[in-house]
Design goal:
Oligomer: single chain
Structural class: alpha+beta
Number of helices: 16
Largest sheet: 5 strands, antiparallel
Length: 475
Amino acid sequence: MTTAYARRVGVYVEQMTIHADVLEEGKPDIAGELLHLIAWIRREGLPLTGKGTIHKRTIQKLSVITVLSSADFDGLRIRYEDSDLYPIHVAILLDLLLSLNLAQKVKGRIQIVDDQLQEWLKLSWTQMHREIYHACVGRYGDTEPALQHFRNQLTVLTPGKDLWCRILNSKWEPQIRSWLNALAGWGYGEVGENSSGELAFRWLIEPKSLLYRGQERVTETEKCGFYVQADFEMLVPPEVRPDMYWMLDLCAERVTRDHMSIYRLTRERMLSAIAGGMELQKIMNFLYQYALTGVPEHVLIALEGWGKEADCAPSNIERYMEACRDTTSDQDLIQKDVLSDMYLSFYSPRNQGLVEVPVLFHAMERDDSVIEKTYSMLGVDEIPENWYREWRRYHMSTARQIVTKAIEWQTKLGIQQDKCTQYLIPHQVQGHEQWTLSGWCILDSNEHTSETEWRTFSPSEWDTMRLILPGDVIT
């Protein structure tokens, strides 16, 4: 739909052949940030006050343990309760956890949903990025139709990652720039400016991967892992799997997170992991398996000493390592291959969070235009008022005139049959006496197969019809 109607609604994205200067660098990806936050909540707890909010001191901690900042989301106009208490970047992190069903509010606290977390850890980085992106679009994207078109064009019309694209819509530039800055904050891309001062953007991930929801087979092309240094620090390359990052966040302290992240093995974090139910031997096995150049002997001795100190016999051992097994086994490949469409398993616009979710145009039930802007409809005063004020049955020649006018004005057309109402975005009329109409159909609430689909109609298929004009028409 985006490709078919790009020229009619205006092309907002165009590939550039020249380089742009970076204004906002892309931060480390949001999927890793959520894993880090989940590990922190699992370790520290997240109790709520009697009013159902998080304690101020805890909010301050949450604000500084992430690479995100409030400046990443200036201008998004996100509405949420207790905005005077929660900084916007903290609110977004918590809202994502809740809306992805990875956390929930129960018994005076926010706690992690373990079964959902285990399913989440089976996903690849690509799948996580897609799930989170759809949640971000649905919850934080501006509902103005022109901006919805822009977001779709940004993923569909850009040729690929690491390629600069010029942003062409000056009317909505402040809102567009705010969205691009947010994408940079989430690690999806970078914002720039060319030599002419035009706004530009480039994806840091493959944009088409945000659209694909089919089966994905997760395999390792080469052995991935990290490097354990003599000073107890671990250098972690970006290709390390999500479940490995999760394990590192549980048993080690994150020092920095960037293209190459750094963790440190510390006595405090090791004791905390063991106290939380993790077995020392599983931690040691994890290091043996994924330390690409081995573990220095004095580091192993220290770890064994910390394990003895912790009295490693918890009464309630949680199976943290279930998600950390080697995916090269046939069984794991089968399990990952059947993750055919995890999208609705984790996020849907109905999931509750902190943010008030906007209503997007894919659920249109009002007589608003799909393209909600100021129209100039020359000749609107020359057509009969009943064309757009009444549902009526017309002769086929008159019906064709109405349809043609809807295509000319790029407005919607409503048709009714057996008390079932459908709204169309008409595209083309074919034929003469026995003509047909093709276009996008926004299904009536009685139909549940999908929200929009391409259809071809004959005028004999409907009883009544009328033009659906936008509310702001210049005659």
